[in-house]
Specification:
Length: about 475
């Protein structure tokens, strides 16, 4: 693993070339590397299968798979294979030349650079901040200098590294344990990231939240000694491409015990990842700023720690939310929708955006419905839905729409208050969360809810990702901001 990956040339470098599986002859574009190609293809340990690598002299060959079968999204995984091979061989400079082999019908040169750059950066990361004196894992070494003879590929690499680094920043904060990452720490970290990339950042404190009537956030977080807050990040480009003002709202529960509806057995393990919706939004804002996206974007991170104490909120409590809607608490483990509801309502009143997208690890039900293959999507506007679906295709972060009907909204109505935060039965469980949130968004504002509970982390090394958080949503939301 490398300390960093940078776009810069070096005198001594390794050329990265692509080879098709079971190639019978050397491609004309690789004629300059004829002898290296011949040696690689004659070896018994390299057949050109996708992701295979073979080093011959100053060339690192990477398998592209069977000709005609490689897809655009496969280039990220190929990037992961490249960076792992470079790291294993301790090679610290490389020139990417995959455009010599990959046809434009698969990806344009700039896209090749971006996708491979994303894959290299994401695969180069792991949770290592907490390695101690007993670790057996190898330490990172130096930086990798990366370039290409193609200006388009080099341009794409720069974009890919910006996106990949933003994903990794989201993962770094997501992986920070709850004895360190609590709401006050989260606010400080958001300010650091904002300062680094030129975002405006302000924080609504616990006392201010009480005064403003952000009672969802207040109640969820008041049982903890580390009081809740609401973090606001703003990207205001000097030149804007449109009058659009996108608002992103991310659930940021730094730890979720379930409160008095306590999680049982080992169900609490991994609940530091209940902030991953907010981390996806935070990483997206970093990428949006560093790419200087010409769209005004505001992010809201309602942040709390859901703990048990004599001051914690309880089942049967009734809370009046920021927009005046009253909520009967039936389950303190359905806390994420309470903090999101205040964030959404505050955004409608104070930010007045043209579009709102919220993202959260909201329900176990969406994992049952969709597994770890994609996120759940609910949207009240066909144009916004199409923009999100297109962004999902471009970013490789897939979504699948689920219904939200008036029947679902009625299902959330309570006997003793306007709504209950969790219905008496678990039927349509992932839809319940979306239905609840819909009461806190003005009807005339296009809105989407994305439930990432199944995709925000992995329990074992898989593809580009090591065990831990994935930073899911950074690329999707960045692409969306560029397209609205």
């Amino acid at each position: 693993m490398f300390m960093s990956i940078q776009i810069r040339s070096a005198r001594s470098k390794t050329y990265i070339l692509g080879i098709w599986q079971d190639a019978s002859r050397i491609p004309t574009a690789l004629a300059h590397f004829k002898s290296e190609c011949t040696e690689a293809l004659s070896g018994h340990n390299f057949s050109g299968k996708r992701g295979e690598t073979s080093r011959v002299g100053s060339v690192l060959f990477v398998g592209l798979g069977k000709k005609g079968e490689v897809k655009r999204d496969d280039l990220r995984d190929i990037g992961g294979s490249i960076v792992r091979a470079l790291g294993k061989a301790k090679l610290r400079s490389a020139e990417l030349q995959l455009q010599l082999t990959i046809p434009r019908g698969v990806a344009k040169e700039e896209e090749i650079g971006q996708l491979v750059g994303e894959g290299m950066t994401i695969a180069n990361w792991r949770v290592d901040e907490f390695d101690g004196s007993a670790t057996k894992r190898s330490t990172k070494f130096g930086s990798l200098s990366l370039t290409s003879s193609s200006k388009e590929v080099a341009c794409g690499l720069r974009r890919g590294l910006i996106l990949g680094n933003a994903v990794n920043d989201a993962r770094r904060v997501a992986a920070t344990p709850p004895n360190i990452c609590n709401p006050p720490w989260m606010a400080k970290e958001a300010k650091k990231i904002a300062k680094k990339c030129g975002l405006k950042c302000r924080v609504i404190s616990y006392a201010q939240a009480i005064e403003l009537g952000l009672n969802g956030i207040v109640n969820v977080g008041m049982g903890s000694d580390e009081k809740p807050c609401m973090i606001i990040l703003e990207h205001n480009p000097k030149k804007t491409a449109s009058k659009e003002h996108l608002c992103l709202v991310g659930k940021t529960i730094t730890y979720d015990t379930g409160g008095y509806s306590l999680k049982i057995s080992n169900g609490m393990k991994g609940m530091k990842y209940d902030k991953n919706g907010g981390m996806g939004v935070l990483g997206a804002m970093e990428a949006i700023a560093n790419l200087n996206v010409p769209t005004k974007v505001t992010a809201i991170l309602p942040c709390a720690e859901n703990m048990v104490s004599s001051n914690a909120y309880r089942p049967d409590d009734i809370i009046e939310m920021y927009n005046g809607v009253t909520v009967e608490v039936t389950n303190t483990d359905a806390e994420g929708r309470l903090v999101l509801a205040d964030g959404l309502a505050w955004a409608c009143k104070k930010v007045k955006p043209t579009k709102i997208v919220d993202m959260a690890t909201l329900t176990g039900g969406v994992v049952v419905a969709l597994g770890s293959f994609c996120a759940g999507l609910w949207c009240n506007d066909s144009a916004l839905k199409k923009q999100i679906e297109n962004a999902a295709i471009d970013s490789g972060e897939r979504v699948w729409e689920l219904p939200l009907w008036e029947d679902h909204r009625d299902y959330m109505r309570a006997k003793h208050a306007d709504l209950h935060n969790s219905a008496p039965a678990r039927g349509a469980h992932p839809i319940q969360g979306a239905a609840f949130l819909s009461f806190f968004v003005d009807e005339d504002i296009p809105w989407a809810h994305i439930d990432i509970a199944g995709v925000s982390s992995v329990e074992r090394d898989r593809g580009l990702y090591c065990t831990g958080p994935t930073g899911w949503g950074v690329r999707l939301l960045t692409q969306l901001a560029e397209s609205v």
